[in-house]
Amino acid sequence: MSEIAWPAADPSSPYFCNGPTLVSFSGGRTSAYMLFMVLCAHGGVLPDYVVVAFANTGKEREETLRFVYECATRWGVQIRWLEFRSRKTSIPVEQRFEEVGYNAASRAGEPFENLITDKQYTPNAVMRWCTQELKVRVMKWFMQSLGYANWTNMIGLRHDEQHRVAKSKKPTRQAWSNSMPLDDAKVSNRDVRAFWAAQAFDLRLLPFEGNCDGCFLKARPKLWEIERTKPGTLKWWSDMEEGPGKGRFVTEYSYAELISDVRRQPDMFAGGLFDDDPEMDAECGSWCGEAA
Ligand code: SF4
User: Fold this and answer.
1) Over 80: is that where the pLDDT of 287 sits?
2) 219-242, pLDDT tens digit by residue?
3) What is the torsional sign of CA 162, 163, 168, 171?
4) Which of 13, 41, 95, 151 supports an S-S bond with 20, CB 3.0-4.6 Å?
5) pLDDT category of residue 213 using cuts at 50, 70 and 90
6) Do residues 118 and 89 lie in contact, with contact meaning Cβ atoms separated by under 8 Å?
7) Is the predicted pLDDT of residue 59 greater than 70, yes or no?
8) 134 lines ligand 1 (CB under 6 A)
9) Does residue 233 have its Cβ closer than 6 Å to ligand 1?
10) What domains can you pick out in the chain, each with its CATH number?
11) Is the dihedral of CA 215, 218, 224, 226 positive or negative?
12) Residue among 67, 78, 83, 57 nearest 32 (CA)
Protein backbone atom coordinates (compact mmCIF):
# COMPACT_ATOMS: atom_id res chain seq x y z
CA MET A 1 0.00 0.00 0.00
CA SER A 2 1.51 3.32 -1.08
CA GLU A 3 2.01 6.14 1.42
CA ILE A 4 1.79 8.75 -1.38
CA ALA A 5 -1.23 10.79 -2.49
CA TRP A 6 -0.65 10.35 -6.22
CA PRO A 7 -1.86 12.92 -8.77
CA ALA A 8 -4.35 11.94 -11.46
CA ALA A 9 -2.91 10.00 -14.40
CA ASP A 10 -1.55 12.22 -17.16
CA PRO A 11 -1.29 10.61 -20.62
CA SER A 12 0.50 13.71 -21.93
CA SER A 13 3.43 13.19 -19.51
CA PRO A 14 6.79 12.09 -20.97
CA TYR A 15 6.72 9.38 -18.30
CA PHE A 16 3.44 7.89 -19.52
CA CYS A 17 3.77 4.43 -21.10
CA ASN A 18 1.63 3.65 -24.12
CA GLY A 19 2.69 0.04 -24.56
CA PRO A 20 4.91 -2.70 -23.14
CA THR A 21 7.65 -0.95 -21.19
CA LEU A 22 10.57 -2.07 -19.08
CA VAL A 23 11.47 0.54 -16.47
CA SER A 24 15.12 -0.19 -15.82
CA PHE A 25 15.86 0.53 -12.16
CA SER A 26 19.56 0.55 -11.29
CA GLY A 27 19.09 1.09 -7.57
CA GLY A 28 20.39 4.66 -7.78
CA ARG A 29 18.73 7.99 -7.06
CA THR A 30 18.21 9.01 -10.69
CA SER A 31 16.39 5.90 -11.84
CA ALA A 32 14.39 5.90 -8.59
CA TYR A 33 13.33 9.47 -9.34
CA MET A 34 12.31 8.36 -12.84
CA LEU A 35 10.25 5.52 -11.36
CA PHE A 36 8.50 7.99 -9.06
CA MET A 37 7.63 10.20 -12.04
CA VAL A 38 6.35 7.17 -13.99
CA LEU A 39 4.09 6.37 -11.05
CA CYS A 40 2.88 9.98 -10.97
CA ALA A 41 2.06 9.83 -14.70
CA HIS A 42 -0.12 6.77 -14.09
CA GLY A 43 -1.90 7.96 -10.96
CA GLY A 44 0.25 5.70 -8.75
CA VAL A 45 -0.80 2.41 -10.37
CA LEU A 46 1.12 0.99 -13.32
CA PRO A 47 -0.61 -0.91 -16.12
CA ASP A 48 0.22 -4.63 -16.30
CA TYR A 49 2.35 -4.03 -19.39
CA VAL A 50 4.73 -1.72 -17.48
CA VAL A 51 7.39 -3.77 -15.70
CA VAL A 52 9.95 -2.38 -13.26
CA ALA A 53 13.13 -4.44 -12.88
CA PHE A 54 16.33 -4.31 -10.85
CA ALA A 55 19.22 -6.63 -11.84
CA ASN A 56 21.37 -7.55 -8.85
CA THR A 57 25.02 -8.43 -9.53
CA GLY A 58 25.57 -9.70 -5.99
CA LYS A 59 28.09 -6.91 -5.41
CA GLU A 60 25.62 -4.13 -4.69
CA ARG A 61 25.96 -2.44 -1.33
CA GLU A 62 23.39 -3.38 1.30
CA GLU A 63 22.25 0.25 1.30
CA THR A 64 21.33 -0.09 -2.38
CA LEU A 65 19.31 -3.24 -1.77
CA ARG A 66 17.52 -1.53 1.10
CA PHE A 67 16.80 1.51 -1.07
CA VAL A 68 15.26 -0.63 -3.84
CA TYR A 69 13.13 -2.40 -1.24
CA GLU A 70 12.04 0.91 0.30
CA CYS A 71 11.07 2.43 -3.06
CA ALA A 72 8.84 -0.58 -3.71
CA THR A 73 7.19 -0.67 -0.30
CA ARG A 74 6.80 3.08 0.26
CA TRP A 75 5.50 3.75 -3.25
CA GLY A 76 3.42 0.59 -3.53
CA VAL A 77 5.02 -0.62 -6.75
CA GLN A 78 6.25 -4.09 -7.68
CA ILE A 79 9.96 -4.14 -8.51
CA ARG A 80 11.16 -7.43 -9.98
CA TRP A 81 14.56 -8.48 -8.61
CA LEU A 82 16.55 -10.45 -11.18
CA GLU A 83 19.88 -12.27 -11.07
CA PHE A 84 22.05 -13.77 -13.79
CA ARG A 85 22.37 -17.57 -13.73
CA SER A 86 23.67 -18.84 -17.09
CA ARG A 87 24.85 -17.72 -20.53
CA LYS A 88 23.87 -21.00 -22.18
CA THR A 89 21.70 -20.19 -25.16
CA SER A 90 20.72 -23.88 -25.34
CA ILE A 91 18.49 -23.49 -22.28
CA PRO A 92 15.18 -21.57 -22.19
CA VAL A 93 15.48 -17.86 -21.42
CA GLU A 94 13.62 -18.26 -18.12
CA GLN A 95 16.38 -20.55 -16.86
CA ARG A 96 19.16 -18.08 -17.61
CA PHE A 97 18.13 -15.78 -14.76
CA GLU A 98 16.31 -16.12 -11.47
CA GLU A 99 13.75 -13.88 -9.90
CA VAL A 100 14.61 -13.25 -6.25
CA GLY A 101 13.60 -10.68 -3.64
CA TYR A 102 15.15 -8.50 -0.97
CA ASN A 103 15.74 -11.36 1.47
CA ALA A 104 16.95 -13.94 -1.06
CA ALA A 105 19.11 -11.56 -3.12
CA SER A 106 22.76 -12.57 -3.50
CA ARG A 107 25.07 -10.54 -1.31
CA ALA A 108 28.40 -12.31 -1.77
CA GLY A 109 28.92 -11.70 -5.48
CA GLU A 110 27.56 -15.09 -6.61
CA PRO A 111 26.04 -14.04 -9.99
CA PHE A 112 29.14 -12.00 -10.85
CA GLU A 113 31.52 -14.76 -9.77
CA ASN A 114 29.61 -17.37 -11.81
CA LEU A 115 29.94 -15.19 -14.87
CA ILE A 116 33.68 -14.58 -14.37
CA THR A 117 34.18 -18.32 -13.80
CA ASP A 118 32.35 -19.05 -17.01
CA LYS A 119 34.31 -16.49 -19.04
CA GLN A 120 37.62 -17.18 -17.27
CA TYR A 121 38.74 -13.59 -17.36
CA THR A 122 37.91 -10.36 -15.59
CA PRO A 123 36.00 -7.50 -17.24
CA ASN A 124 37.71 -4.13 -17.56
CA ALA A 125 36.96 -0.60 -18.71
CA VAL A 126 37.33 -1.58 -22.37
CA MET A 127 35.60 -4.96 -22.20
CA ARG A 128 32.88 -4.05 -19.77
CA TRP A 129 30.79 -7.15 -20.36
CA CYS A 130 29.61 -7.35 -16.75
CA THR A 131 27.00 -4.65 -17.37
CA GLN A 132 25.79 -6.32 -20.52
CA GLU A 133 25.64 -9.83 -19.12
CA LEU A 134 24.49 -9.17 -15.56
CA LYS A 135 22.03 -6.37 -16.27
CA VAL A 136 21.11 -5.60 -19.89
CA ARG A 137 20.86 -9.18 -21.09
CA VAL A 138 19.14 -10.41 -17.91
CA MET A 139 16.44 -7.79 -18.37
CA LYS A 140 16.04 -8.77 -22.00
CA TRP A 141 15.58 -12.43 -21.04
CA PHE A 142 13.09 -11.40 -18.39
CA MET A 143 10.94 -9.47 -20.87
CA GLN A 144 11.11 -12.35 -23.34
CA SER A 145 10.10 -14.77 -20.58
CA LEU A 146 7.00 -12.63 -20.05
CA GLY A 147 6.14 -13.11 -23.71
CA TYR A 148 7.14 -9.72 -25.10
CA ALA A 149 8.77 -9.68 -28.53
CA ASN A 150 9.22 -5.89 -28.55
CA TRP A 151 9.08 -3.26 -25.87
CA THR A 152 10.24 0.19 -24.79
CA ASN A 153 13.29 0.23 -22.54
CA MET A 154 12.94 3.22 -20.25
CA ILE A 155 16.33 4.31 -18.95
CA GLY A 156 17.29 6.92 -16.38
CA LEU A 157 19.55 9.23 -18.34
CA ARG A 158 19.24 12.88 -17.38
CA HIS A 159 19.36 15.95 -19.59
CA ASP A 160 22.86 16.74 -18.27
CA GLU A 161 24.18 13.39 -19.56
CA GLN A 162 23.96 14.29 -23.24
CA HIS A 163 26.87 12.15 -24.42
CA ARG A 164 25.15 9.06 -23.04
CA VAL A 165 21.73 10.21 -24.23
CA ALA A 166 23.06 10.63 -27.77
CA LYS A 167 24.61 7.16 -27.67
CA SER A 168 21.41 5.60 -26.39
CA LYS A 169 19.33 7.31 -29.08
CA LYS A 170 21.17 5.49 -31.86
CA PRO A 171 18.90 2.91 -33.47
CA THR A 172 19.66 -0.68 -32.53
CA ARG A 173 18.68 -4.02 -33.98
CA GLN A 174 17.38 -5.10 -30.61
CA ALA A 175 13.90 -6.12 -29.52
CA TRP A 176 13.53 -2.83 -27.68
CA SER A 177 13.82 0.88 -28.34
CA ASN A 178 15.14 3.21 -25.68
CA SER A 179 13.13 5.97 -24.08
CA MET A 180 14.70 8.65 -21.89
CA PRO A 181 11.92 10.71 -20.32
CA LEU A 182 14.31 12.49 -17.93
CA ASP A 183 16.03 13.96 -20.96
CA ASP A 184 12.69 14.84 -22.58
CA ALA A 185 11.62 16.57 -19.35
CA LYS A 186 15.03 18.33 -19.09
CA VAL A 187 15.71 16.89 -15.64
CA SER A 188 19.21 17.59 -14.29
CA ASN A 189 21.23 16.16 -11.45
CA ARG A 190 20.26 19.21 -9.40
CA ASP A 191 16.56 18.36 -9.83
CA VAL A 192 17.17 14.80 -8.69
CA ARG A 193 19.11 15.96 -5.63
CA ALA A 194 16.37 18.44 -4.72
CA PHE A 195 13.76 15.69 -5.01
CA TRP A 196 15.63 13.37 -2.63
CA ALA A 197 16.34 16.17 -0.18
CA ALA A 198 12.58 16.48 0.26
CA GLN A 199 11.83 12.77 0.72
CA ALA A 200 11.34 10.81 3.93
CA PHE A 201 13.97 8.29 2.84
CA ASP A 202 17.04 8.27 0.62
CA LEU A 203 19.88 6.12 -0.65
CA ARG A 204 22.40 6.28 2.16
CA LEU A 205 25.48 6.23 -0.01
CA LEU A 206 27.78 8.84 -1.50
CA PRO A 207 27.70 8.83 -5.33
CA PHE A 208 31.04 7.00 -5.63
CA GLU A 209 29.82 4.26 -3.27
CA GLY A 210 26.97 3.26 -5.59
CA ASN A 211 26.90 0.49 -8.23
CA CYS A 212 29.08 -2.57 -7.48
CA ASP A 213 31.03 -1.93 -4.28
CA GLY A 214 34.54 -2.24 -5.76
CA CYS A 215 33.73 -1.50 -9.41
CA PHE A 216 36.90 -1.15 -11.50
CA LEU A 217 35.54 2.06 -13.03
CA LYS A 218 35.94 3.83 -9.69
CA ALA A 219 39.12 5.88 -9.47
CA ARG A 220 41.94 4.52 -7.30
CA PRO A 221 41.50 7.09 -4.45
CA LYS A 222 37.85 6.14 -4.24
CA LEU A 223 38.67 2.45 -4.02
CA TRP A 224 41.18 3.23 -1.25
CA GLU A 225 38.51 5.18 0.59
CA ILE A 226 35.98 2.37 0.17
CA GLU A 227 38.45 -0.14 1.63
CA ARG A 228 39.44 2.27 4.41
CA THR A 229 35.86 2.95 5.52
CA LYS A 230 34.60 -0.59 4.94
CA PRO A 231 37.59 -2.93 5.35
CA GLY A 232 37.31 -6.18 3.44
CA THR A 233 35.23 -4.75 0.59
CA LEU A 234 37.97 -5.22 -1.99
CA LYS A 235 38.82 -8.80 -0.97
CA TRP A 236 36.24 -10.34 -3.34
CA TRP A 237 37.72 -8.35 -6.23
CA SER A 238 41.22 -9.49 -5.36
CA ASP A 239 39.99 -13.09 -5.06
CA MET A 240 38.50 -12.84 -8.56
CA GLU A 241 41.79 -11.57 -9.98
CA GLU A 242 43.79 -14.32 -8.33
CA GLY A 243 41.18 -17.02 -8.93
CA PRO A 244 38.67 -17.50 -11.77
CA GLY A 245 39.38 -14.17 -13.48
CA LYS A 246 43.07 -14.99 -13.97
CA GLY A 247 44.06 -11.36 -14.33
CA ARG A 248 43.50 -7.75 -13.37
CA PHE A 249 40.40 -5.60 -13.64
CA VAL A 250 42.70 -2.59 -14.07
CA THR A 251 46.02 -2.77 -15.92
CA GLU A 252 47.87 -0.34 -13.64
CA TYR A 253 47.23 -2.03 -10.27
CA SER A 254 45.80 -5.13 -8.66
CA TYR A 255 43.17 -5.16 -5.94
CA ALA A 256 45.68 -6.90 -3.66
CA GLU A 257 47.87 -3.80 -4.04
CA LEU A 258 44.95 -1.53 -3.20
CA ILE A 259 44.28 -3.49 -0.03
CA SER A 260 47.95 -3.44 0.89
CA ASP A 261 48.12 0.36 0.29
CA VAL A 262 45.33 0.92 2.78
CA ARG A 263 46.86 -1.42 5.36
CA ARG A 264 50.19 0.40 5.13
CA GLN A 265 48.66 3.89 5.26
CA PRO A 266 45.23 3.64 6.85
CA ASP A 267 44.99 7.40 7.35
CA MET A 268 46.13 8.41 3.87
CA PHE A 269 44.44 11.44 2.43
CA ALA A 270 42.58 10.66 -0.75
CA GLY A 271 42.40 13.96 -2.61
CA GLY A 272 39.62 14.63 -5.09
CA LEU A 273 37.28 12.11 -3.52
CA PHE A 274 34.24 14.24 -3.87
CA ASP A 275 35.00 15.79 -7.23
CA ASP A 276 32.46 15.25 -9.95
CA ASP A 277 33.24 11.92 -11.51
CA PRO A 278 31.26 11.56 -14.71
CA GLU A 279 31.77 7.82 -14.86
CA MET A 280 30.57 7.05 -11.36
CA ASP A 281 27.80 9.61 -11.62
CA ALA A 282 26.27 7.19 -14.13
CA GLU A 283 24.11 4.44 -12.75
CA CYS A 284 25.42 1.17 -14.11
CA GLY A 285 23.05 -0.55 -16.49
CA SER A 286 21.07 2.59 -17.22
CA TRP A 287 22.68 3.36 -20.55
CA CYS A 288 24.24 0.25 -21.98
CA GLY A 289 21.36 -0.85 -24.15
CA GLU A 290 23.29 -0.79 -27.38
CA ALA A 291 24.36 -4.40 -27.27
CA ALA A 292 23.36 -7.76 -25.88
S1 SF4 B 1 29.04 -1.41 -11.51
FE2 SF4 B 1 31.04 -1.78 -12.49
S3 SF4 B 1 31.55 -3.91 -11.96
FE4 SF4 B 1 29.34 -3.66 -11.59
S5 SF4 B 1 28.35 -4.34 -13.46
FE6 SF4 B 1 28.65 -2.12 -13.61
S7 SF4 B 1 30.62 -1.84 -14.70
FE8 SF4 B 1 30.52 -3.97 -13.95
Assistant:
1) no
2) 999 999 999 999 999 999 999 999
3) positive
4) 151
5) very high
6) no
7) yes
8) yes
9) no
10) 21-204 (3.40.50.620)
11) negative
12) 67
